[in-house]
From TrEMBL:
Keyword Lipid metabolism applies: no
Alphabetized UniProt keyword annotations: Metal-binding, NAD, Oxidoreductase, Zinc
Domain (Enoyl reductase (ER)) ranges: 13-338
Catalytic reactions of this protein: a secondary alcohol + NAD(+) = a ketone + NADH + H(+); a primary alcohol + NAD(+) = an aldehyde + NADH + H(+)
Family note: Belongs to the zinc-containing alcohol dehydrogenase family.
Name recorded for this polypeptide: Alcohol dehydrogenase
Amino acid sequence: MATYRAAQVPTAGGGFEIVERELREPGPGHARIAVEACGICHSDAGFVEGAFPGLSFPLVPGHEIAGRLDALGDGVAERGWQVGDRVVVGWFGGSCGHCKQCRQGDFIVCQNLKVPGWAYDGGFAESVVAPADALARIPDDLSPADAGPLGCAGVTTYNGLRRSSAQPGDLVAVLGIGGLGHLGVRYAAAMGYETVAIARGADKAELAKELGAHHYVDSTAGTPVAEALQALGGADVVLATVGNSEAIGAVVDGLARRGELVVIGATGDPMGIAPLQLILQGRVVRGHPSGTSQDVEDTMRFSALHGIRPTVETAPLDDAEAAYQRMMSGAARFRMVLTM
Ligand SMILES: [Zn+2]
Ligand SMILES: [Zn+2]
């Protein structure tokens, strides 16, 4: 009997254990992926700790999956996929096709979105079975460890920027230089925005410049971040990648008139924003959800074209627990990626 290895969480908050599982055949409309790499995302904590509703344990997280197709269910070849194709499956792990948003073609806000690790076992494993509509083709010059994180961290920042109101030349600030933000700064610069990186500490200034930022704002320097942004003319868009409501709220007065705050840093804490900070200036605060498999493909093509790669540290699947702890502690620069 053919088996594969997976890093599973036996119960909520229970820590990872490596198990052998029986290899599954993909059903109709599904494909099996021989996983080569899978990124560890901060939102994986929501899976591991059992914080999301409707999770079932034991659970295999992982929604930054990169690998090769090694078996196709009925109807998948007809969609243009072949065994051996290199693919990513990200946060968008497929949509239901029948809810109102799917019928409107807005698949990323599907009411029954199938997130790997939630709707089905995710990529902290040597094998994953996923619906064909979740597959994104990897360009030749991206490695699996570079491609995986683009399925969540990459597409969320890339799409968050390109779906914003920012036009080339506009002042765009990226709040935070972490797993999301380090890609956000690179994308913002490559998209032609006058790019501001905002982070904590003078020591990040050099990193911000290396990532392509034209300006750096040290949020610990004493001058309020909003004031620093207004000194640059006011931000047309701020992409908030930190999961820190106080830091997010502090940029609002740094927005230009008609400026837009795009929130992708996940946290449950309320943001202290007064209506009067928004009304007269016509400012917008908006949440942004990731992107579909086509958006992931667009993200990877843009990244390959502009030589943009996530900065990653890799660890073998066997070290899933240590790699997960390193990612969550904030010590990783900037994405931990498990390799199979
Ligand atoms: Zn994620
Ligand atoms: Zn749907």
